[in-house]
Amino acid sequence: MATVVHDKNSGKNSIRSVFQYQWIIKNMTFFLFLSVLAVIYIANGHMADKIIRNKSKTEQEIKDLEFEYKTIKSEVMYSSEEVQILKSADHLGLKISREMPRRLQGLK
Prior knowledge:
Blueprint (H helix, E strand, L loop, with lengths): L7 H11 L2 H6 L1 H52 L2 H9 L18
């Protein structure tokens, strides 16, 4: 049976061989590719945060506009009641007629 003898320096040499200048130059395009991917990943995160902030801001504006719509609608409904119309027309001198309306007959 053959025995395998491991040299203590063989592990260090393999690590050194990986980080040699020639190897780094050879894989420079891959490192640049990884760098570009990292920048795109970071930019994507920032854009997602911006979109979430805009969405939250828009949702708050919608809630405010809904509240304003309901308030104005309530005011219009209240001011269009007969009693309120009579009160507003009173200072103009307008009153409800107590007489029955007469029907006009046209010429035939």
